[in-house]
Amino acid sequence: MKQDKRICLITYGCQMNEYDTEIVRSILSAAGYVFTQDDLEADIIMLNTCSVRENAHRKVYGHIHDFRHRRQGKPVLIGILGCMATGLRQELIENKHLALDFVVGPDSYKRLPAILAQIGSPAGAASEEGKHPGYDVTLSEFETYADVYPARAEGVNAWVAVMRGCNNFCSFCIVPHARGRERSRPAGNIIDEVRRLADEGFKQVTLLGQNVNSYRHEGVDFARLLEQVSTVKGIERIRFTSPHPKDFPQDLIHVLATNPKVCKQVHLPLQAGNDRVLELMRRHYSGREFLDLVCKLRKACPTLALSTDIIVGFPTETDVEFEDTFELVKTARFDSAFIFKYSPRPRTEAALKLKDDVPEAKKTERIVRLNKLQADISLEKNKELVGLVHPVLVESSGKTKGGAAYGRNDANKIVNFAHAALKAGDMVNVRITRATPHQLKGEFLNFIEVLAPLG
Ligand code: SAH
Ligand code: SF4
Ligand code: F3S
Questions:
Q1: Ligand 3: does its nearest atom lie under 6 Å from the Cβ of 179?
Q2: Is there a single domain that holds both residue 360 and residue 241?
Q3: C-beta atoms surrounding 199 within 10 Å
Q4: Which ligand does the CA of 178 lie closest to?
């Protein structure tokens, strides 16, 4: 099995891609490959990529050229995994400058050992286009990698994909084209993995899915799944991302509000505040319905931290319509927001049917205004926390940098404080003493006993 081949695997994109990188490491380690951080000493360079926005793939193209340049002729196989492989398959195959040795999509990772063996050397990879042995961009309706235990990096948090794919087809989004149809993993299999994670010392799991709250497998829905995961001893915190506002029934809100292990934090993508734009985006809610959900969530769970995603400059969005987004952000008072300029993505409904007609300068103006508004709100909200005591799960030990330690509170906000004798995974109480828009500062109070396991 020993290959003596070294792989440098670089990850771009969202948490799901980070998780998939761990899947790929697991599959290829079992096949005898070893991993290196250094692209210059690697025999194979793999880029696990994202195609969600235009600049994401530009960056990857730039890196591929840099890698080849730096090698100065020393042979290497370079290939693409992830969402660009499937989302931009045509472009990748046709782009002669990239000269990729392999292009393997997110549902084909189990075939990687066979693919790498077949393409063997850079010379062996240069076979006929279209039947290239290094290309596998098929999407599956069933693959969930339930039988692969990811080779995780150390830390306090473990990503656990509970479903893959997306059936929503928001008109701007390439993800359903890149990752295929929704499919959920059996709950029992997820719980077994979470138990093993707890045994390995992980304190927090983050359940992942492109539309995580549409999880359903043999009668177990997402609310039940959260409850089941919360019974695992040793796991202190459960997070999940990303939910869709349309899949938030009352019993999920109830579990979120009442289960002590489920963090009081939700990333709830808004995308736009204007109803005509939301309709064109195919989001299946109005601005009013989104705000109603925010109210319901906050009523059930007053300390809830909310973050969101917003797109500015969607085709045909007028100044007046953008003001609806601006006003909604003012009303919703998110704790934080990721705001993006619209970019057309191949094969999406918006790219096929609508002209990208909002000028770049307008997009810039809108994103600057929204970012400023959100930074003010984030700061105000964080200032409200000054003086309070928050349980913090330590991520970085205080032994380095003069005792500087940091961790996250339940709301997933970073809290910096000083303590020289901590280790990652400790739970401590910290009094918040200062706030910035993106981080909190505090002083250590005491260690906390872990939460009692439920049931
Ligand atoms: N599954 C996640 C979305 C993943 S993509 C969810 O539904 O929340 C992350 C974010 O990228 C999206 O929420 C959206 O705000 C942004 N995005 C997606 N496609 C985009 C595009 N074509 N242009 C700009 N931003 C986009
Ligand atoms: Fe994309 Fe919409 Fe699916 Fe999220 S819910 S991955 S934005 S299609
Ligand atoms: Fe990007 Fe794919 Fe994630 S397109 S955002 S890596 S699901």
A1: yes
A2: yes
A3: 11
A4: 3
Q: How far is the CA of 307 from the centre of ligand 1 (A)?
A: 14
439 C-alpha vs ligand 2 centroid, how far in Å?
28
- Residues 395, 373, single domain; the answer is no
The span from the first CA to the last CA of the chain, in angstroms, equals: 45
Q: Which residue in 449, 414, 446, 420 sits closest to 431, CA to CA?
A: 446
Which ligand number lies closest to the CA of residue 17? 3
* CATH code of the domain covering residue 53: 3.40.50.12160
Are residues 328 and 226 located together in one domain of the fold? yes
From the CA of 106, give the closest atom in ligand 3: 2
Q: What is the DSSP string of 313-373?
A: S-TT--HHHHHHHHHHHHHH--SEEEEEE----TT-HHHHHS---S-HHHHHHHHHHHHHH
- Strand pairing class (216-217; 220-221): antiparallel
Is residue 167 assigned to a domain?
A: yes
- For each of the chain's 455 residues, which pLDDT tens digit applies? 566 899 999 999 999 999 999 999 999 999 999 999 999 999 999 999 999 998 888 899 999 999 988 988 889 999 999 999 999 998 898 888 888 999 999 999 999 999 999 997 545 545 554 468 899 999 999 999 999 999 998 889 999 999 999 999 999 999 999 999 999 999 999 999 999 999 999 999 999 999 999 999 999 999 999 999 999 999 999 999 999 999 999 999 999 999 999 999 999 999 999 999 999 999 999 999 999 999 999 999 999 999 999 999 999 999 999 999 999 999 999 999 999 999 999 999 999 999 999 999 999 999 999 999 999 999 999 999 999 999 999 998 766 666 889 999 999 999 999 988 888 999 999 999 999 999 999 999 999 976 544 43
Same domain? 254 vs 323: yes
Which is the closest atom of ligand 2 to the Cα of 211?
Answer: 5
- Cβ of 165 below 6 Å from ligand 2: no
The pTM score is 0.95
Cα–Cα dist 61/57, whole Å: 6
